[in-house]
Design brief:
By secondary structure, the protein is mostly helical. It has one domain. The protein has nine helices and no strands. It has helices spanning about 10-15, 20-30, 35-55, 70-80, 85-95, 105-120, 120-140, 145-155, 160-165. The protein is globular and about 50 Å long. The two termini are about 30 Å apart. The relative contact order is 0.17.
Length: about 170
């Protein structure tokens, strides 16, 4: 996904103010053993990610993707999607477009592994460029605190093993 936006974009404020937030938070708490404060924090970050993803079609300079660092955001996104009416309304009324959740297909994963075997240097360099562009974009538009939280704090705390262990 491509993104272009500015810190002063008022749609971010609208995205952070979500209807029926308590239902989504409760849904997450029912799926994961986390505190309400923790769930609220993760949902705030998920809305920020969705806001950024919604802007992706406006410019071709950045490809947004959920990677292992953002695992807990992806899990909250799954919970939000389960509340289909609220998720649809959020996307259409706040973001002005529907953000589909598209897991990487098996064929694409296999093609990536094959490319990695054939030319690992090129694949790694391409991925580094994608990550750099995403981090730069997020830093410029959401600030250092968001980048630090998403790419240092969250992956340290919400490892795949930890997320499996807190799942109910």
């Amino acid at each position: 996904m491509k993104i272009a936006l500015s810190k002063t974009d008022t749609s971010l404020g609208k995205a952070l103010d979500c209807e029926h937030e308590d239902d989504i938070i409760d849904g997450f708490i029912n799926r994961y053993n986390v505190t309400r404060e923790e769930a609220i924090d993760i949902f705030e970050e998920t809305k920020k990610w969705l806001w950024a993803a919604a802007k992706s079609s406006e410019e071709d300079s950045v490809t947004m993707s959920i990677d292992a660092s953002l695992l807990i955001i992806d899990e909250m996104w799954h919970t939000f999607i389960l509340h289909t009416k609220y998720y649809h309304n959020f996307c259409m009324n706040v973001l002005k477009k529907f953000i589909h959740h598209l897991p990487t297909p098996k064929q694409e994963k296999e093609a990536y592994k094959l490319q990695l075997e054939r030319n690992p240097t090129a694949v790694v360099e391409e991925r580094k460029t994608q990550v750099y562009n995403q981090l730069s974009f997020l830093y410029d538009n959401l600030g250092a605190e968001t980048v630090i939280k998403w790419y240092e704090e969250y992956p340290s705390k919400y490892t795949p093993e930890y997320v499996r262990n807190i799942k109910k």
